[in-house]
């Protein structure tokens, strides 16, 4: 295919450099994720596999200290960046916008340093209490199914590395909001490759759950380079900017942040709690089966979501310009592609599980042993497919710096958490995934898409002369 033809295809699917690298990174994760999954199956025992994913689920508790601020930072920064530009690595443009962006950076950095410290202490203790209660051993060693799982040291190291990375999140979020996605996604693509090779080496070398620490170390090094190295002049400009105009934290950040924080907390209960309950009720081996399936489907959804999620800054700019027709054109095109990718990915995964269960040999038998059955995978896949339209709707609405999803999110995620935990406790993995499908398809997606439909009609309403109606103007001023 010629370069010109490739560019035509890229334009047809609304692909720019930022999206290309983001999708490439997600694609790499999907491809290498299969290698990682195979190494987990063949290099870890069933019990170690359960601990591996329990670590991941517990790390998700960072939402309780981070409180979703990074999403707000991206949206607020994108609105200010519409009046700014980068010249030789420094920020130039409207003095008012530059001052406001600098104030956003200062407050966000202070917040995240505090949040990172709280995270390291609180989550370390939570993990020790959780795993100690599982093992019943004062020496932090468990002996199950003839496998010794030493979790204490890797757990503490993993939490520390993740906490340090959390402290750098505000700066990378500002960069994303300031139109630097192409560079960031390009770097993260290579960072993802390096992380994969580190994880593979540690798994193949018999280091078990320490592989997660290797991955976290690579991410920390990469984020440090971006924030403190590659973009040091960018942030020096913001640090040196006098605070003549500041972001009103209470009126511009908190109203959206606290809503995202509450929703994030309930989302953790809806998506992470089920695995931890299975770990406690049915043991690490069963939790490991669920975790492997959850990881593959989450990776598929992440790759599909990146197609539209990388456009948050673009959406923010178009909204600031009130170019709603172009906003909708891009959104609907990207939404169709994103949902299609989820459909294709989940179908491929389900077919793969069918194959390994139908054809018996030492290789397929080993894989089938570490995964749930076909029925369970199919049910869970349907839940992820049903969730994708809601994800797209959520990104669109939040790009307006508003978030009307609070009540719907609390209701839907509470229902999902209750269904997955209660049915999972009684029926195991199949009960948990059935609860997820019922909650997503029957409650969450109808509510979220309905909110998107109503708010879009209100906020983008125009009169016959092309001006915003009074109702829409009032909404814009909220």
Provide an overview of this structure.
The protein has one domain. 81% of the residues lie in helices and 3% in strands. It has 20 helices and four strands. The strands form two sheets. The protein has a two-stranded antiparallel sheet with strand order 1-2. It has a two-stranded antiparallel sheet with strand order 3-4. The longest helix has 41 residues, at 95-135. 45% of the residues are buried.
Helix content: over 70%
The major beta sheet can be summarized as: 2 strands, antiparallel
* DSSP E strands, number: 4
Low-pLDDT stretches are 135-147, 469-478
- Class by helix and strand content? mainly alpha
Order of helices and strands: HHHHHEEHEEHHHHHHHHHHHHHH
How large, in whole angstroms, is the Cα Rg?
23 Å
Mean pLDDT: 85
Overall tally of domains: 1
Strand order of the largest sheet: 1-2
For the termini, the CA-CA separation is 49 Å
The amount of beta strand, in percent, is under 5%
Number of helices: 20
Shape: globular
Summarize the structure.
This protein is mainly alpha-helical and 478 residues long.
């Amino acid at each position: 295919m010629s370069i010109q033809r490739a560019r035509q295809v890229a334009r047809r699917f609304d692909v720019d450099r930022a999206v290309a690298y983001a999708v490439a990174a997600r694609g790499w994760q999907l491809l290498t994720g299969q290698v990682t999954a195979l190494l987990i199956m063949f290099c870890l025992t069933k019990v170690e596999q359960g601990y591996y994913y329990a670590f991941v689920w517990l790390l998700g508790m960072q939402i309780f200290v981070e409180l979703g601020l990074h999403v707000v930072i991206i949206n607020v920064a994108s609105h200010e960046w519409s009046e700014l530009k980068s010249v030789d690595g420094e920020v130039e443009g409207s003095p008012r916008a530059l001052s406001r962006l600098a104030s956003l950076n200062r407050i966000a950095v202070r917040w995240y340093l505090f949040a990172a410290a709280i995270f390291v202490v609180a989550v370390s203790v939570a993990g020790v209490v959780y795993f100690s209660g599982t093992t019943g051993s004062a020496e932090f060693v468990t002996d199950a199914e003839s496998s010794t799982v030493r979790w204490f040291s890797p757990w503490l190291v993993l939490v520390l590395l993740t906490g340090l990375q959390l402290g750098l999140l505000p700066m990378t979020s500002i960069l994303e909001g300031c139109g630097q996605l192409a560079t960031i996604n390009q770097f993260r693509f290579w960072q993802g490759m390096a992380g994969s090779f580190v994880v593979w080496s540690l798994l193949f070398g018999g280091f078990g759950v320490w592989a997660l620490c290797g991955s976290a170390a690579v991410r920390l090094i990469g984020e440090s380079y971006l924030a403190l190295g590659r973009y040091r002049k960018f942030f020096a400009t913001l640090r040196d900017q006098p605070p003549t105009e500041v972001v009103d934290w209470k009126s511009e950040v908190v109203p959206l942040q606290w809503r995202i924080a509450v929703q994030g907390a309930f989302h953790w209960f809806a998506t992470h709690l089920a695995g931890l309950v299975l770990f406690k009720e049915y043991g690490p081996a069963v939790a490991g089966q669920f975790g492997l399936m959850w990881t593959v489907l989450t990776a598929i959804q992440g790759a599909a979501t990146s197609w539209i999620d990388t456009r948050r800054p673009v959406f923010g700019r178009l909204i600031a310009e009130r170019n709603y027709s172009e906003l909708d054109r891009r959104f609907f095109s990207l939404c169709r592609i994103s949902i299609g990718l989820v459909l294709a990915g989940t179908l491929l995964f389900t077919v793969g599980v069918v194959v390994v269960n139908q054809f018996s040999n030492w290789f397929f038998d080993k894989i089938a042993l570490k995964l749930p059955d076909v029925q369970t995978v199919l049910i869970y896949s349907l839940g992820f497919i049903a969730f994708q339209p809601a994800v797209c709707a959520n990104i669109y609405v939040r790009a307006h710096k508003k978030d009307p999803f609070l009540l719907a999110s609390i209701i839907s995620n509470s229902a999902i958490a209750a269904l997955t935990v209660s049915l999972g406790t009684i029926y195991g993995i199949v009960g948990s995934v059935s609860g997820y499908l019922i909650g997503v398809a029957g409650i969450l997606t109808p509510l979220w898409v309905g909110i998107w439909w109503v708010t879009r009609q209100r906020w983008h309403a125009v009169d016959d002369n092309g001006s915003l109606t009074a109702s829409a103007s009032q909404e814009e001023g909220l």
